[in-house]
Amino acid sequence: MKNIKHLYLGLTVGFTLLWLWADSAWLGNSNYFVWRAAFTNWSGVLGMAVMSLGMILSVRPLSFERRLGGLDKMYRLHKWLGITGLVLSISHWALAKSPSYLIGWGLIERPGPRVRGALPPGLEGLFLSQRRPAETFGEYAFYALCVLLLLALIKHFPYKHFFKTHRWMAVVYLVLVVHAVVLMKFSFWSQGVGLLSALLMVLGTAAAAVSLLRRVGIHRRAGGVIEALEHHPESGVLRVDVRLQDRWDEHDAGQFAYLTFDQTEGPHPFTISSAWHNDGHLFFLIKEGGDYTNTLPAQLTVGQACTVEGPYGRFVFKSDAPRQIWVAGGIGITPFIARMKALAKQGNHQPVDLFWSVRVLEDQALRRVQADADQANVRLHLIRDGQNAPLTAQAITKVVPSWVQGDVWFCGPAGFGAALRQGFARLGLGAKHFHQELFQMR
Q1: CATH class of 323-436
Q2: Contacts with 119 (C-beta within 8 Å, 6 or more apart), sequence order
Q3: Domain 2-212 is of which CATH architecture?
Q4: Does pTM surpass 0.70?
Q5: What is the pLDDT of residues 193-221, one digit of tens each?
Q6: How close are the terminal C-alpha atoms of the chain, in Å?
């Protein structure tokens, strides 16, 4: 989380300082229209900056994933940028519309008639001649932006519809790029705020083209066939075995991939539950818990084609700590299963305790996880919800006296993870020693 916070603050504060350096004439001026012009410029350039970075992140660039600590963190930043862009866009629109309302309410006086001279030569004159259409298109793009971002933030809006509507963000973004290029204060282009804006908008435009051409992640896709299906209705878990038919980059235990079973539904992220043995076989454990995952047991068939895109994620158990503590909540056991299978093959010489808190558990599933733990030399501690006391950081430290020497790796419900993180922090565990997959892609 530290890296995405630094990037977010660096972008917003940095752009604000660059704008202030380029446009400080309003300081000490009491004229409302001078202030309005200045902050319209600020909300415009910063709004386009955050939307440009959001557009770049939407195509899942690997260089950003490595630096930001995983795709889950990258999409958390993407969400922050979207919300910030929405707030700035509303502010920008309100500033543009404010004079007519303030004059009508008698709060400010109507300015005198503006004397328009001849347009300056060159590019500046061309931009000035296109202000009116740029303002009109930008206003309509703003309304579309508000609708699309609000739909993205509504969790109950079905994913398959979100997947389709969110693609229109690329079109809206391109219209806003034209709006920004034409209407940005012309003197900005020769200063840092304009140069950095240009760079981000060029990269954002390229990302929008990738999105519209449906080329996101295309070099990380592999075709496959469903080889086996195993449904556990009592626990609501579906095991999907996939045989890949294309080249696949070796993945680390704990990473995830986007699975596409139906092109109209689009890709969904699922943790890879198997270690990589260079044999083209993967399997996924999918928990029923939404409109889409609830339908998979009835929809999927052996022999059905699918697409796997990945691998993604940095929840890969790499640390210098002499021991590790794993905590899984329900279906959050999946990355730990993959890791145990990898350790069983390569050998495990590090003390590992796995705490698994689960509500419903079939005997067959327990036997499999226990067998994986035994083969990987991992101590399994089972906590049954409703039968045992809730799992807390303090309870874990009592079972593992040497916890202070280790790292904690958590995968499960966000609330459960937040409570554990806070509990360990109170006990003195540094934030860098608590690892958590956020795994919320919208």
Answers
A1: alpha beta
A2: 125, 128, 129
A3: Up-down Bundle (1.20)
A4: yes
A5: 999 999 999 999 999 999 999 999 999 99
A6: 16
